[in-house]
User: Fold these one by one.
Assistant:
Number 1:
Amino acid sequence: MIKFYYHPSPNPAKIALFLEESGLDYELMPVDTRKGEQFDPEYLKINPNAKTPAIVDTDTGATVFDSTAILLYLADKTGQFLPEDNAVVRAEMLSWLMLVGTGIGPYAGQAVHFKHFAPEKLDYAINRYDFEARRHWGLIDAHLADRKYMCGDTYTIVDMAVWGWAGPVPFVLGENAWDEFPNAKRLFDEISARPAAQRAGELKQKHAFKTEMDEDARRHMFPQNKAS
Ligand SMILES: N[C@@H](CCC(=O)N[C@@H](CS)C(=O)NCC(=O)O)C(=O)O
């Protein structure tokens, strides 16, 4: 059984989708990051990085944090949602998986931070992260121009990683941002229509997560401001 440490946000969404697609038995373990639960000492033993998602696999005793590592772990465990088993395709899968984990996620996160949450509107920071988030989505979109899924004809963990960050695209890049990325939007719509994606989206209703980004939530989420 998988204990799934979850908050309704983009990186945990990737894992919610995998768990729902695979049919693995899992228990939802809510971590309300707007209440600071990511810093609970018990949770820090599972994820020292104080972020969601994380999993504990009670079958094997493995603890895994970071959504990319979790996707790879679960795909290896089940043998599901992996592309054709050869070195060339595996290399392609790893390259795009890392691009989502190290490019799309962090730049989108910083774009949201400086546009929506930073106490000062810093044009330089807004411009940089908007540019980089947009540039990364442009890479995904171009890659999908002549293939159905990120690894060709097979729906894999790379598509799940892309899907996790696709939902917030209008919030990150603006209301009409999808017009710039029609191929990525096609993939997003196709995955969102899958029953597993719908169930993954409904997980947020299984716990009363705090939704307000008030002063207290900002202190937990942006601890660099604590002293000021
Ligand atoms: N590289 C990590 C990033 C995890 C991450 O930033 N998670 C966000 C939700 S998408 C979080 O827990 N934020 C709470 C916080 O920053 O305190 C991953 O891919 O899992």
Note: The chain has a mean pLDDT of 97.
Number 2:
Amino acid sequence: MTWEYLRTPELAGRLLLIAGWLGTRVAGATILDLNCGWAPLLPLLPDTWQRYVGNDICQQFIAEARRQSVRAELYVCADDDLPTLDRLDILVCLGYACGVSAAESESLERSIKRLVARYRPSAVVLEAWAQVAASSRLLDLVQTLQLGGYVVAGAWSLLTWPAVTTPQSLRVIFFLEVNS
Ligand SMILES: C[S@@+](CC[C@H](N)C(=O)[O-])C[C@H]1O[C@@H](n2cnc3c(N)ncnc32)[C@H](O)[C@@H]1O
């Protein structure tokens, strides 16, 4: 399947780093894991969030995600068809392929911008395949968020060494916070 590379052990590093950064921010928060796949971040976060909402168009992934937590709200739906939230504190979008894969959501960037404009989450996490991110729309998206009042609180690139089992193993992560 197109996204199976995300299950390789070397891809776990992105999740551990993100879970670490989010660790102290999760308590009482409403988190949206946009296009979450099987929600691999979910079991790594402290179970202190108020709401964990995830969506994906793949029914099989959402069925798998539901086995990770009975409390999380996981929807089989597109990112431009999400249920309305009463608030959103943390928006995460992991595995962003920057439009390189035809299997990726065409509406992803639009949805991120719409969600940020509507809910103004205090934290936004964007994680992507670094080779494509460097030359592409991810940096434009980060810049748009910066112009909208967000600051880059941290940016990381992760390189697995020595065993690289997938070309997608080089990752980049942007942590953005609203500039209060
Ligand atoms: C690169 S994978 C990322 C999965 C997960 N976020 C991760 O990083 O492990 C992209 C995901 O987007 C989902 N997807 C594609 N088009 C979508 C759409 N229009 N709305 C919601 N999800 C979509 C795919 O099914 C896939 O699970």
Note: The chain is about 25% helix and 25% strand.
